[in-house]
């Protein structure tokens, strides 16, 4: 049996659809989960959101052995959490750092990611529809790695 794709979402993403819709749109996190599940297909999906840094770290540790790929939207953790960065350094499979908005077009405080340096790839600015693209890309990357 193939291991699932993990999709981990950080703080305040539980408020998608309500939080700053001019930046993040009107799609809810439940809708994002459906997009990801459809993209993951038979591979399966573990989809989670937390406002807790320690819970996020525990999920990353779980994903090390329990997943074939990881999509993480660390949200605010992106810019200050060395602990999450250190946990992600241990992740041995394809890893995409994902942001709904183009963080590089926003205020300077959003320009320096601690996660980007350990991610396989970074996606930003594609809106919530980008989650599905990212999951499909991760599946391709995982298949290529398995075939090598």
UniProtKB/TrEMBL annotation:
Q: Which UniProt keywords apply?
A: Amino-acid biosynthesis, Aromatic amino acid biosynthesis, Lyase
The protein's site described by Transition state stabilizer is found at 19
Pathway named in the protein's UniProt entry: Metabolic intermediate biosynthesis; chorismate biosynthesis; chorismate from D-erythrose 4-phosphate and phosphoenolpyruvate: step 3/7
State its Enzyme Commission number(s): 4.2.1.10
Q: Which domain of life is it from?
A: Bacteria
Q: Which SUPFAM superfamilies match?
A: Type II 3-dehydroquinate dehydratase
**Reaction equation(s) it catalyzes:** 3-dehydroquinate = 3-dehydroshikimate + H2O
Query: InterPro entries attached here?
Result: DHquinase_II, DHquinase_II_CS, DHquinase_II_sf
State the top-level EC class: lyase
Q: What positions belong to coiled-coil segments? A: none
Q: What GO terms describe the biological role, i.e. biological process, of this protein?
A: amino acid biosynthetic process; aromatic amino acid family biosynthetic process; chorismate biosynthetic process; quinate catabolic process
* Active site as annotated: 24 (proton acceptor), 99 (proton donor)
Q: Does the keyword Lyase apply?
A: yes
Which CDD domains does its entry note?
Answer: DHQase_II
| Subunit text | Homododecamer.
* Gene3D superfamilies for the chain: Dehydroquinase, class II
For the ligand (substrate), the binding residues are 73, 86, 100-101
**What family name appears in the similarity comment?**
Belongs to the type-II 3-dehydroquinase family.
Task: Tell me which species this is from.
Answer: Pseudooceanicola albus
GO molecular function (one): 3-dehydroquinate dehydratase activity
What is the recorded name of this protein?
A: 3-dehydroquinate dehydratase
């Amino acid at each position: 049996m193939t291991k699932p794709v993990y999709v981990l979402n950080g703080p305040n993403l539980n408020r998608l659809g309500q939080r700053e819709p001019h930046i993040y749109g009107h799609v809810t996190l439940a809708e994002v989960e459906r997009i990801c599940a459809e993209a993951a297909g038979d591979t399966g999906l573990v989809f989670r959101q937390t406002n807790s840094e320690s819970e996020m770290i525990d999920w990353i540790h779980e994903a090390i052995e329990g997943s074939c790929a990881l999509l993480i939207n660390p949200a605010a953790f992106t810019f200050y959490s060395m602990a999450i960065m250190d946990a992600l350094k241990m992740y041995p499979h394809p890893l995409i750092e994902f942001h709904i908005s183009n963080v590089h077009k926003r205020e300077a405080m959003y320009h320096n990611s601690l996660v980007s340096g350990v991610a396989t790839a970074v996606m930003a600015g594609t809106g919530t529809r980008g989650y599905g693209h990212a999951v499909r890309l991760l599946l391709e990357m995982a298949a290529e790695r398995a075939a090598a």
